[in-house]
Amino acid sequence: MNWVPRLSTSLCIVAALLAMHSAPAPAQLTGHGGPVRAIAISSDGNNVLSGSFDTAAIRWSLKTEAAEQVLRFHSDAVNAVAFLKDGRMVTAGADAKVAIWTPGRQQPDQVFEGHGAPIASLAVSPDGARVASASWDHTVRIWSLGDGAQQVLEGHAQNVNGVAFTSDGRSLVSVGYDRELRIWPLAGGTPNVITLGSPLNAVAVAPDGEIVTGGADGKLRFLMSEGRESGEVQAGQTPIVALSISPDGTSVAAAGIGGVVAVIDRKARSIARSLVDTGSPVWSVAFLPDNATLLTGGVDGRIRRWNALTGAPIGSSLQATPRDPLAAYTGDHGAEVFRACVACHTLSEQDAQRAGPTLAGLYGRRIASLPGYRFSDALKAMDIVWTPETVSKLFELGPNAYTPGTKMPEQRIGSAKDRKALTDFLARATAK
């Protein structure tokens, strides 16, 4: 969508400090420092890949309920992610690049470049040999995973927001802000162009070939494989920004910016139930292979798990680490101020890496100088050394004023007492 904000993290603590006293919602995977823009599920249902406005992607294990790998390469928001058939991963985002990853490796195996604007969506062909990307440069590109060759599909007049291969692998479907749904024959020829009643933000294809698209008017529109409209459902009153079809094809989950996910009975063309996400708006949604479990990604950086058959959240709070990293600091006011920050930052280099850089050895370190973390160019150009005074000033003035150009979500701590408690705690907890 044209108005999607572009955010990224910096060295500063990016957790939601304004909400630090609220209780965690059920069934959360916590690790991103910004809205979760994309979610993909591995074919065996054991792993999740998420992409965020914080510029990172995270590979999660649903068995251990922990982040197994943080993928850092992109210089801007990660808007789209996917698993390949061989277990590798694909990420793409606002830096207009597509990266191919092998689990466990710290850098991409391949990087595809060619788009001239942010990439909004990815799709993997049924045979696993190609990846398609939809971009705000008004094009769709198809990349060969074998030799990196690209095919450019032109015709959309505005941002292309969604892309999906048909179930037989013979065509590619794209949707855009120009209200067009295009069905591209991959063997060549003229695409079938269908103009619908609203700017289109997402598209998915059911196992039987039916096409589903979600629009800015909150409607789901259903089309036969050749493009003939076959029905519609008013899923909500706010724009639909993400779609997922259950593997058995019976249900469609439509996520809206109002924080409600509508689960649609595809055969009945009706809303079966609604999930209300307290971390609204919802930016991403995905079904697990069991057809009954749904994951949603929210603006608060959390991934929540739901029973799609009942609408109830599943399980107790799932954290990115199996223990409370602040358990040793019970009663410490500074630790309580910092508590929300553990979603993105560790205090020790020995802890598993998260979406943000570790704060170990923070004081005395120059901004954007920690090896192994990809900082924005704006931060690299600044002459700031982290001290209790500079950290306090960061949260007194806010990132936009103190570190302009970081595109970090604005966070401030108004109380001087709370800022002092935080900086004192960091002195004790991050000293090497």
From TrEMBL:
<keyword id="KW-0813">Transport</keyword>
<dbReference type="InterPro" id="IPR015943">
    <property type="entry name" value="WD40/YVTN_repeat-like_dom_sf"/>
</dbReference>
<dbReference type="InterPro" id="IPR009056">
    <property type="entry name" value="Cyt_c-like_dom"/>
</dbReference>
<keyword id="KW-0677">Repeat</keyword>
<dbReference type="InterPro" id="IPR036909">
    <property type="entry name" value="Cyt_c-like_dom_sf"/>
</dbReference>
<feature type="repeat" description="WD">
    <location>
        <begin position="153"/>
        <end position="184"/>
    </location>
</feature>
<dbReference type="Pfam" id="PF00400">
    <property type="entry name" value="WD40"/>
</dbReference>
<dbReference type="InterPro" id="IPR001680">
    <property type="entry name" value="WD40_rpt"/>
</dbReference>
<dbReference type="InterPro" id="IPR002327">
    <property type="entry name" value="Cyt_c_1A/1B"/>
</dbReference>
<keyword id="KW-0479">Metal-binding</keyword>
<feature type="repeat" description="WD">
    <location>
        <begin position="29"/>
        <end position="70"/>
    </location>
</feature>
<keyword id="KW-0732">Signal</keyword>
<keyword id="KW-0349">Heme</keyword>
<dbReference type="Pfam" id="PF00034">
    <property type="entry name" value="Cytochrom_C"/>
</dbReference>
<feature type="repeat" description="WD">
    <location>
        <begin position="275"/>
        <end position="316"/>
    </location>
</feature>
<keyword id="KW-0408">Iron</keyword>
<protein>
    <submittedName>
        <fullName>C-type cytochrome</fullName>
    </submittedName>
</protein>
<feature type="repeat" description="WD">
    <location>
        <begin position="71"/>
        <end position="101"/>
    </location>
</feature>
<feature type="repeat" description="WD">
    <location>
        <begin position="112"/>
        <end position="153"/>
    </location>
</feature>
<keyword id="KW-0249">Electron transport</keyword>
<dbReference type="InterPro" id="IPR036322">
    <property type="entry name" value="WD40_repeat_dom_sf"/>
</dbReference>
<dbReference type="InterPro" id="IPR050349">
    <property type="entry name" value="WD_LIS1/nudF_dynein_reg"/>
</dbReference>
<feature type="signal peptide">
    <location>
        <begin position="1"/>
        <end position="27"/>
    </location>
</feature>
<keyword id="KW-0853">WD repeat</keyword>
<feature type="domain" description="Cytochrome c">
    <location>
        <begin position="329"/>
        <end position="430"/>
    </location>
</feature>
